[in-house]
Amino acid sequence: MQEYSIRALPLVSMELDKAALMYRFHYGQKIRIPVVTWLIDGAGKSILVDTAADAKLATDFRGLPAKEIMPFDAALASAGLKPDDVDIVVQTHLHWDHCANTQKCRNARVLVQEEELRFAYAPHPILATSYKRQLFTGVEYELVNGYREILPGIELIPTPGHTPGGMSVAVQTKKGKAIITGFCCLEENFSPPVGVSDEIRELTPVVAPGIHLNAVDSFESLLRVKGMADLVIANHDPSYLEPQLVA
Q1: Each residue of 73-83: pLDDT tens digit?
Q2: In principle, which of 29, 60, 68, 98 could form an S-S bond with 18, CB 3.0–4.6 Å?
Q3: pTM passes above 0.90
């Protein structure tokens, strides 16, 4: 089977409350998380999963303390690419911190779940502040409905809950099936919470994302990814604050 590699290209470091990523746990605990664009190599094509954002947008739009790690163009240049060289962008969802550079990839096929695009244009108020329309308009999307294999060994897996049309990306690598989560989470979300009673840990095999439209769907999507993946790549885990080869 075809094998690929995955490279983390973090653009921004943001500070936020850990409970924003872990539903009902860790209130008041501040952490720094990366905003990452993921480069998949090995297909004879340049594939990005999400295009991330910049520190100014994080501060101006959402008021989050943020620091730039590197600009989008510089991140691509570190891999020998320019935005016009990108062949495919997989938009896991359309929150502002996942799509802010997609318009720069003028030659790319941009894949998004149809339900996600529909919701992004008229989001429920509970999630409306996570979408910024100017970032995702003017793009010719290739709409996806449910599961799709886009290349041998690269699969789009529906993982709703964080948003209604979120999807994760499964990639066959030397480490097995690696799944880049399409919902905002940490590696900790995939285990029982630490620092609580044994009784609570027994009741909570995973922890849903703190930001979600539907907590139950979020929980089920976490379990689905955990069960399918040999390697879970949690898209906001602090371990990706530096550029690196992940798989």
Answers
A1: 999 999 999 99
A2: 29
A3: yes
Give pLDDT tens digits for 116-142: 999 999 999 999 999 999 999 999 999
Second-level CATH architecture of 5-239: 4-Layer Sandwich (3.60)
Burial class (CB in 10 A: 0-12, 13-18, 19+), 60: exposed
